Amino acid sequence: MSEVIGISGNKHIIQVYEDTGGVRPGEPVKETGAPLVAQLGPGILTQIYDGIQRPLPMLAEASGDFISRGLFVDGIDHKKKWEFNPEVKKGDVVKPGQSIGWVQEQLLIKHKIMIPPNLKGGTIKEIHSGNFTVEEPVAVLDDGTKITMMHKWPVRQARPVTEKLAPTIPLSTGQRVIDGFFSLAKGGTAAIPGGFGTGKTVMQQTLSKWADVDIVVYVGCGERGNEMADLLHEFPELQDPKTGRPLMERSIVYANTSNMPVAAREASVYTGMTTSEYYRDMGYDVLMTADSTSRWAEAMREMGSRLEEMPGEEGYPAYLGARLADFYERAGRAEVLNGGQGSVSIVGAVSPPGGDFTEPVTQNTLRMVKVFWALDSKLTQRRHFPSINWLDSYSLYDLDLEPWFVENVSADWNKNKRRAMAILQENAELEEIVMLVGSDALPEDQQVTLEVARMIINFWLAQSAFHPVDTHCPYKKQFDLLQAILKYRDYAFEAVQKGIPVGQITSLPSKDALAKVRLEAEYEPILSKVMADMENEFKALK
Amino acid sequence: MTKEYKTITEISGPLIFVEKTEPVGYNELVEIRTGGELKRGQVLDSSDDIVVVQVFEGTGGLSKESAVSFTGDVIKMPLSPAIVGRVLSGSGRPRDGGPEIVPDVSRDIAGAAINPASREKPRAFIQTGISTIDGTNTLVRGQKLPIFSGAGLPHNDVALQIARQAKALGEAESFAVIFCAMGITNEEAQHFLSDFERTGALERAVVFLNLADDPAVERILTPRLGLTTAEYLAFDLDMHVLIIYTDMTNYCESLRQMGAARQEVPGRRGYPGYMYTDLACQYERAGIIKGKKGSITQFPILTMPGDDITHPIPDLSGYITEGQIIISRELHRKGIYPPVDIRPSLSRLMNSGIGKGHTREDHRAVSDQLYAYYAEGNDLRGLAAIVGKEALSERDKLVLEFADKFEKRFVNQGRDEDRSIFDTLQIGWDLLADLPEAMLTRIDDKFIKQYHPKYAASAAKK
Predict the structure, then answer these.
(1) Which of A125, A259, A295, A357 is deepest in the core (most CB within 10 A)?
(2) What is the DSSP letter of A237?
(3) What is the ipTM of this complex?
């Protein structure tokens, strides 16, 4: 299998998705007349694919443990029968992208069967309910077009939507540092640097588990075989905490390891994107994780140098920035053709060589994405999880999301966030001084700031992925906990003004009690008791 | 069927350009006869009338009169169980004076990617008998763990010691060793061979030797031949295979040389842009396959030019392999063997191979604690150099002392000393026991009560 990537005169330049050893001049080359397409229809969920949508378990059946050449396997099972439930009836007028019925693909996922967006639509002449394979027509339009449950879509072409919407709804993840400080919007884009030992894997798993989305698409692009084996081993065992069902039932995995053909690696990101968009078109929220986009960019570089293109920065092709931009632009929340809304959010890992953030892939990525979660190996070593550095990370969705938070959580959401961040910023500056002179030499109010920062870091930013309650923290609780810490700060400053020694302020029992509130599911009565105690304790200080 | 062409139009470095009339496949094996000599090469570029061939044995002595024939097949490695115990050249020909290998099967040396869905997760502990590896950077079966070293450091001794001592815990079975030498000196090769002979390891080894004065192009074949042999031994004959290749840096130099001869657009530092994929295609041939008994574990050795870890070769390797063992010049100068610096070293698969059921339940905690204080002790050395030891606090002095003792007792060991994992953990505990118990913050109380030398005697009685 291969793809035309250049035409000059009467010659075509073809990139081959498989090893070319032994191929000789004069070999027959067949043209399919269609660009590289993904097969879209019921049966995609739970699958593990290679970069060009060949299911890996089926490849293993066909060719054994090693992937041999020249295999063609369908992306979805063409033999399996699905029960089709029509939603429209004879005589109805249907538009492209409109759904005409559904299939129960997984226990909790209804798969909408839509008129492919590249068709014209028309009036339904025939429609059947019952069991069909994906190739059998379930409906016929008045112009004779047969509609099957599967259609093909060119992977490099974005699927159309009615209208792209502004990122005004947050993607809830239940992680305080993400939701509270560096929130991602539904349909937003985020980057995480994937240096080793930064806890990237745990982070991705937590996101897959807790992100408020319907479908998770994981694209492993140019990563290690053993790492993929680990993922393929553990992913099916993960449980969806919300429903108790296996997480795999709403997941799709693309695995293209570093030794699989480089052209397929380049394609894998687009194939993954196309399936993500397909589920978005049904009105679902989709989270796509690409790990790692650096490997993808390197694939472009390799192919660019084979084509003897003029190299840009560090040997990457000059169109690197444009390609990355095209890819990230396919994310977004949208009004879909079927009516209703869906979204594709992207979390892209970058692994800069030598940990150098100034290299072109990282720089071009950071230009495109709106959220950056700076995973920090120093925090990992200190066993602070999630190891997102609060000073280096950022989210540009702050203002877009503010109205939502004001309406749904509290008017003080952003105000508290800014106060907390200012405290952490001041803390970082103070810590440098403390390193030189020790904390006792600081004025009392600055000592209080240090203490409050410590509370924000340890009671609020740190969150255990393994604690049954703490692993997921709803918005309201996040807000209340931060509010409580800031309240403590106000009391403490007041006390300092009155001349009360810092040692007394920091040793209040209610402060330690506050640390444990996050571990409680029914936290509200406990928190109000802690806060009442705190007020009394401060009053009692002399 | 094999036509001979006497149509060499150009010879340029390791490449020859041949006019031909029949279609010739990419990567095909080519035989070139000149005088009485037979050289072999591989098709790099095939178009309608001209073929570019890279000649493995060097183009010296070739002329326009040389006869070129295309075999119509890609390069294959002849394999049979009799290959174990042989010494072969870098292009797979006998070098020990023995007969040619009579093949049971012949395999394409390019190999194929293991289907990720067929891979088994590596989790079986390998005991190398070296504390700094077993204790703090544990190797598991199916892993690829390179040794990053520098010129003049004893990385070869470390590799030899691993080859000699590696075994699975509790089982008598040992590893078949494949040794691929790429561009090393005759002296180094002798060192390896005599050590293999001395310890009897040669009986379960296959050796591929491409020495410094052998053609550089041949080096591109050597790891592929070794890995093809490894796959045969592991997945056809159910053996556990340990493959050591030294030195990957020479291999990459050859890649660069070929790239330059082909007038490709160079990437970083003149290395070809496809070096990442090329290296991945070697390294990724490690692993375990579901339902097969054998495994392939890789130990590539690479010397970092100028001890620079951001050089493209170690950098790209680090992104493919599962960790690295770093040989430190500083420790070597202190006379410590093996001079492994555990701080930047890492084994990414360590967690799946240690703990209850693999080594011992306290392994992770002990390792973390040793790491923490050794790292802190090293930082304190810098401080002590500025302000003097006397100015340090009592606690800091203890940690500083710990770091010194750690190097002398835990890191340092004999070249023939084969420590079991339990010995290694015991040394770790002995060192930790010199610190106050309250300082062991990374270790669960449960483990302290059971394994701390202070309690161990009474715990054992119970």
Answers:
(1) A295
(2) G
(3) 0.80
